[in-house]
Automatic annotation (TrEMBL):
Organism, as annotated: Anaeramoeba flamelloides
UniProt-recorded name of the protein: DUF302 domain-containing protein
A Pfam family reported for this protein in Swiss-Prot or TrEMBL: DUF302
Domain annotation DUF302: ranges: 39-100
Region forming the signal peptide: none
CDD domains documented for this protein: DUF302
Length: 131
């Protein structure tokens, strides 16, 4: 499946889903983020719908200083938080996907948010994840 690069980034990773989830947690913690939750969609949906979608795990994370700044700008912006990264298997390959906040904050039009997202994009995360 192809997504608009403006909204969702998808990376192919040369590790298993489980290895990738553990590496994501490690990388975010090294970057100062808190890991808030892990959801195993395969298990949850299989239990609720009796359908197996294959391996698919979501990791929720938060950079507290960023969350605080968003709340100070306007509490309604908290609906975009926490951050989420999804790891899934497809055709025996592992992928990581995450929302690109840049087009969202550009729509909001707040210069402080635009600069914050520009200065804290996911490129550092991607670089560390792939090493």
């Amino acid at each position: 499946m192809t997504y608009n690069k403006e909204t969702v980034d998808v990376l192919k990773i040369n590790k298993t889903v489980e290895e990738t989830v553990e590496r994501i947690k490690q990388v975010f913690q090294e970057m100062g983020a808190s890991i808030l939750f892990t959801i195993n969609f395969q298990e949850s949906l299989k239990k609720k719908t009796k359908t197996d979608i294959g391996e698919c795990i979501e990791v929720g994370f938060c950079f507290p200083p960023v969350a605080l700044k968003w709340a100070q700008i306007h509490k309604s912006l908290m609906s975009f938080l926490p951050g989420r990264v999804t790891v899934y298997a497809e055709n025996n390959e592992t992928f990581v996907s995450f929302l690109n906040l840049k087009p969202i904050v550009e729509l909001i039009g707040n210069e402080e948010l635009i600069n914050m997202v520009k200065n804290r994009d996911m490129s550092a995360f991607v670089e560390k994840l792939q090493n």
